[in-house]
Design goal:
This is Glutathione S-transferase. With 230 residues, the protein is of the alpha+beta class. The chain has helices at residues 15-26, 44-49, 69-79, 91-117, 121-146, 159-165, 168-176, 189-199, 211-229, and strands at residues 6-10, 32-35, 58-61, 64-67. Strands 2-1-3-4 form a four-stranded mixed beta sheet, covered by helices on one side.
Length: 230
């Protein structure tokens, strides 16, 4: 398949783009990555490919756009069946994986974002408490889903690994700007070990950006937003 048959509209810093890149790399799918400015100056191609939400990522396969990162990863798994499976084959395990990926995106991640908006130390402490509650639940999910193996997917990187792992760079940024140690080795030893193994996996190493690079990007975006609202 020619690289032009598969295009990904995304951003190197976006966890939602990162997870799609992981899925493509896991399946060894050649593709063209088209960098988008996801907070301003959206391209005509992006607006045409995703006219409803006008957001990245968008996978374009044979000129057909697929939007929303979770749906894209599932699409990749269903279309390219030659590579390693991303979702479990067992219906119950597949439903469980979907439950936890939805939890990560719709419950845990929004709480993480509240840290930036906390107005004072008391508000920040409240949010940190919520973050820890979520992470403890994810620790238990890891124990159950991994069945004592290296990843949520067992011996191999799977759906939950890709989704939670796409945030690891930004989790480190949260710590660098004074946030909590989210994956604490004492509180959540399973997740702490998982994160180390995941980041050293050959599918991940060249996809998840270095925390310091993400921090520079974060500070640049923060300054630009402050300037535009002044």
């Amino acid at each position: 398949m020619a690289p032009s048959d598969v295009q990904l509209l995304g951003s190197w810093a976006s966890p939602f783009s990162i997870r799609v890149q992981m899925g493509l790399k896991l399946k060894s799918i050649e593709h063209e990555f088209i960098e988008e400015n996801f907070y301003s100056n959206k391209s005509d191609l992006l607006l045409k490919a995703n006219p409803i939400h006008k957001k990245i990522p968008v996978l374009i396969h044979s000129q057909k756009p697929i939007c929303e990162s979770l749906l894209i990863v599932e699409y990749i798994d269903e279309v390219w069946t030659d590579g390693p499976s991303i979702l479990p084959s067992d219906p119950y395990e597949r439903a469980t994986a979907r439950f936890w990926t939805t939890y990560i995106d719709q419950t845990w991640f929004p709480i993480m974002k509240e840290l930036e908006k906390a107005a004072n130390d008391e508000a920040k402490a409240t949010v940190i408490g919520k973050v820890i509650e979520c992470v403890v639940l994810l620790e238990a999910a890891f124990e159950k889903c991994s069945k004592g193996k290296s990843f949520f997917g067992g011996d191999n990187v799977g759906y939950i690994d890709i989704v939670l792992g796409s945030y690891l760079g930004w989790i480190k940024v949260t710590e660098l700007v004074g946030g909590p140690n989210v994956l604490d080795g004492t509180r959540t030893p399973g997740l702490a070990g998982w994160a180390e193994r995941f980041l050293s996996h050959n599918v991940v190493k060249d996809v998840v950006p270095e925390p310091n690079k993400l921090l520079e990007f974060y500070m640049m975006v923060k300054a630009a937003r402050a300037s535009s609202s002044a």
